[in-house]
Amino acid sequence: MKRPVLLALAVALWAVCRFLVPAGMPLLLAGLGFVLTRRACRAFLLDPSSERVVLASYVVKTTASFLLYGISLFSLPVLQSLQLGNGFWSIAWDGVAYHQYAQVMRQALLHLDFSAVQALRLPAGTISMSGYLGGIYLLAGSTPLNGILLNSWWATAGLIAAFLLAVQLRIPSGSIPTILLPIAFWPSAILWSTQLLKDVIILSLVLITCALFLFLWHPGEEERRMNRMGWLFLTLSVLLLSTFRNYTSLILASCIFLDFLFFAVWKSKTYGPRALLRGAGLTAIILTCSISGSAIVIREIGMGMKEKSIAGLSQRLPEYAGELRRGLMKTPGSALVAPDQPPAQISYRAADISRNLAAAFFAPFPWQWKKEGNWSLMRVAAGLEALLIYPLVIGLLISLPRFSVLQEGQGFFLLLFVIVLPTTLSAVIPNFGSMARLRLQFILPMILLLGKLRMASSNS
C-alpha cells in the first residue's frame, strides 16, 4: 500500500477510536507502534539480528504494559500490596501525580486557558511531563495506558539510537546485536517503561543526543556531516532533555564540551580546521540549548531561595542540594546511601564520595534487602539487578587502559558522562528507590562504552 493510503487509514482508525470506541485506542497505539518500529529498523539499516532484538523488546514492553495496567485496574490477586488501583503501582507513585496534572493540562490545551496550570505552581520538570501527557490525552484520550504505551515508542527510539551509536563507535556489526540485548531487556528499563514515568524518555533522549552528536561530528568523515535534519533533531533532543531533566542535560553538555576541548588542543591538526569548526558548532548548539532549557529551572531555584543574582545563587547551591537531599529522604525507597550524614549536609570527603558512588552503582546492598526485619520484594529485585552491574563495572575498569581509542572523537565524552553523572547523583540522592531509576541514565550507555573498549582490547 502507498503512503497516502496508509496515512488515510491510520487517521480513520484514530478517529474511530478517539470518538466512537475509546477502548480501542490502546490497541491502535500498540499496533501502530509495532509498524513504526519495523519501518524505523528498515529506514536506519539495522541488520536482521539487531532488528529482531528491537522488535522483541517492543513486544515485551508493550505486553508487560498491558498486563501490569490490567492487574492494577481490575485489582487482580497479583502483588496486591503494591497496587494503587486504576492501573497504577506504588513503585511509581509519581505517575499518579503526573496523570492528575496531565488532566489539568489537557483542559488548558483544549481551552487555551492556562490559569489553572499556573495556580498549581509546578516545577518546570513536572510541567514538561504534564504538558507532554496532556497533549497525548487530548489526542488519544485520558486513559493512563495511552501515555504508558508511548513509553514503548520512546524505548524503541532509544534502542535504535543505541544501534546507531554503536555504529559510530565503530563496533563490529557482528557484535552489535549482543551489545543491544542487555540494553533492550535490562529488567528495570522494562519495568519503568510500563509505568507513567519519564525515565524511559530521558534515557532515550540521552542515547539520541549522543548518537546524533557523533553522527554529525565523527572526525575524518566529511561526507553527510552537514545533514540539516540531523542538526535540527539534535537541537530538539537537547531542548527536550533539558526540560525533562535539566541536570542530565547540563552534565552531558559539559562532557561533550570537555571532549571538544581535548580534540581542539591535541587532535585538530590531524583532522584540519573544518572538523574543528564543525565540532565547535555542535558543542555550541548543545551547550546553548542545554543552558536555555535549564534556565527556567535555575530561575525557579533562585526564586525558591529568594536569590535574584546568579552569583548569590551559586554560593547557595550546596544549601539547595542539602534541602533537596532532605526532601528525598522522605520519599519511598529511603534506604539511605549515606545514613550517618546529616540530612541536609553534602559531604565532599573522599571516603564519603567513594561510598556514595559505590551505592549509586550497586545499592541496595544485600544487607539492605530487608525492611523493618522483613524481606522487601522491590529491594530484593533491585538488589538482584544490581548484581548485573558488578561485571559491567569490573569489565570497564579492566578495559580502561585502552581508553585511548576514545580520544579520536569516538566517545571520550561517554566515558566522562558515566563517571561525572553518578558522582553528582550520589552526592544528592539519599535513597536507592530513586537511584535505581536514575542510574539507568549511565548504566545503559556504559554497556556501549564497554563494548567499544572490549573491542579495542581484543584487537590489540
Describe the protein's architecture and organization.
This protein is an all-alpha fold. It has 21 helices and four strands. It has helices spanning 3-19, 25-43, 48-73, 94-111, 115-120, 124-140, 144-168, 176-185, 187-193, 199-217, 228-244, 246-266, 268-271, 273-304, 310-315, 317-328, 350-362, 377-399, 412-428, 432-438, 440-459; strands at residues 83-85, 88-89, 370-371, 374-375. It has a two-stranded antiparallel ribbon. It has a two-stranded antiparallel sheet with strand order 3-4. The radius of gyration is 22 Å and the shape is globular. Residues 302-311 have low confidence and may be disordered.
Low-confidence spans: pLDDT under 50, at least 5 residues?
A: 302-311
The largest β sheet comes out as: 2 strands, antiparallel
Please give the radius of gyration in angstroms.
22 Å
Count of beta strands = 4
- Counting DSSP H or I runs of 4 or more residues, the number of helices is 21
Strand content: under 5%
Distance between the termini: 50 Å
Globular, elongated, flat, extended or rod-shaped: what is the shape? globular
Secondary-structure element order, N to C = HHHEEHHHHHHHHHHHHHHEEHHHH
**pLDDT averaged residue by residue:** 82
Alpha-beta content class: mainly alpha
Could you give the order of strands across the largest sheet? 1-2
Helical percentage: over 70%
Summary tags:
about 450 residues, mainly alpha, two-stranded antiparallel ribbon, 21 helices, about 0% strand, globular
